[in-house]
Design brief:
82% helix; Receptor-associated Protein; 300 residues
């Protein structure tokens, strides 16, 4: 037997040992974090909708237990902020994110090793698999946070318009927000989720100022910060909030249009390089034979 086969057998044996430990010992020895409210709902929905997540979750729990012991203070602080911006996907804490990363590395290593053995590609594929397993959770989380904040910025001007219309019809600010949330069509929209959490926190007994500051804490974009600052200052000074929100909606819409124009101008510049490559390839296809004959002196 070759050394690669021995290596594969050793890794498979180690994986089975870890799997047996996770299945038979980890659930009794590891104390899970008690989840309540928003994170508990996220976790329940994720586990119910994904069979793959249910299959690997015992391993995630095991590595979460050991990840909590690792002295990665700066990394954990940075990724706690990132998880908050991403809306706490899957109800993850920063230690559970470490567990997901370790699980991803092990699964990708096992899959890439098996594929390398079956196809004789070589051990380089295993290294690529390790890199992908380590990097994919971070890439997924960064992309999730960026998309969520972008979606909130995109939907806030229209939400402010509807809130202003509702307040103009005689509702106060809280009831106007509640009316807009009740009529929201996409229940998975990040802005809908944040406004719903804002109303939920008010029902729990928080003041309007505290609930708004929590909204800013979860979605720290410039538009949300301006909205929260205006709402808090209007409550503090007793100024009409409807006029302030109307002005902010107009400003936010103008910023959105300016951002769209900027992205359109940038796209026009970025598309030049692919067009040049396509044009070069077309020229080579059409005149390649003539160019080769010219270099060989056989053109005429």
């Amino acid at each position: 037997m070759s050394a690669q086969i021995y290596l594969a057998i050793a890794i498979a044996t180690g994986a089975l040992t870890i799997g047996a430990f996770v299945v038979f010992f980890a659930p009794e020895q590891i104390q899970d974090e008690v989840l309540r409210g928003y994170r508990a709902t996220r976790r329940k929905d994720a586990l119910e909708s994904s069979a793959l997540l249910r299959a690997v979750w015992p391993m995630v729990r095991l590595f979460t237990h050991y990840g909590a012991m690792m002295p990665l203070k700066s990394w954990k602080e940075r990724n706690t902020l990132l998880l908050r911006k991403a809306g706490e996907p899957l109800g993850l804490s920063v230690n559970e994110l470490l567990g997901v990363m370790f699980t991803s590395v092990i699964c990708s290593f096992a899959v890439s090793l098996l594929f390398a053995q079956l196809t004789d590609i070589g051990f380089g594929l295993v290294i690529v698999g390790l890199a992908l397993g380590l990097g994919l959770p971070s890439v997924w989380l960064n992309d999730r946070a960026a998309q969520r904040l972008q979606s909130i910025n995109r939907g806030l001007p229209q939400a402010l318009d509807l809130i202003v219309l509702s307040m103009g019809a005689g509702l106060d600010f809280i009831n106007a927000v509640r009316h807009v949330v009740e009529k929201w069509s996409d229940k998975k929209d990040p802005l809908y989720e944040e406004l719903s959490r804002f109303l939920y926190e008010l029902n729990l007994g928080k003041t309007r100022k505290e609930a708004l500051e929590d909204l800013e804490y979860r979605a720290p974009t410039d538009m949300v910060k301006t909205f929260v600052t205006n709402a808090v200052q209007a409550e503090k000074r007793g100024t009409p909030l409807v006029e302030i929100l109307k002005i902010q909606a107009d400003v936010a819409r103008s910023k959105r249009f300016q951002s769209a124009e900027k992205m359109a101008g940038r796209a026009a510049v970025m598309i030049l390089m692919p067009l040049m490559l396509i044009f070069s390839a077309t020229v080579l296809v059409m005149f390649g034979s003539l160019i080769v004959k010219g270099f060989r002196g056989q053109l005429f």
